[in-house]
Amino acid sequence: MHLAYPAVLSALLFCTGLYGVLARRNAILVLMSVELMLNAVNLNLVAFDVWLSKAARETLHSGQALTLFTIAIAAAEIGIGLAIVLAVHRNRGTSDIDRLRDTAERHDPDNPDARPAEQSDEAQKAEATA
Asked: What is the DSSP letter of 110?
């Protein structure tokens, strides 16, 4: 098999993952797109390892060893990433990335007893409707 086939497939996987990272709003779909990108890198590592081992006639297989490390890092990344997304979803009620850009609560540093601006607006709307 030629080296071009896995390289083109890897480029397509990476571009699909890149599109998913840039275009998606849901945090879980962004994590899945990052996994696609990591799998494209793994495919390239293995393909070039096989190609170089045939050319150099060495059996070091460093590309396959790097692929195992990448898989382990990807597993840790998805575990931590999903834990963070679930915690944020429990606190905020959404996993939409555009809504989560402002993660810090707005409050007045001079008046620590004051409510955040969002809560006071909601309280005013509730009083107006009551």
From this structure: S
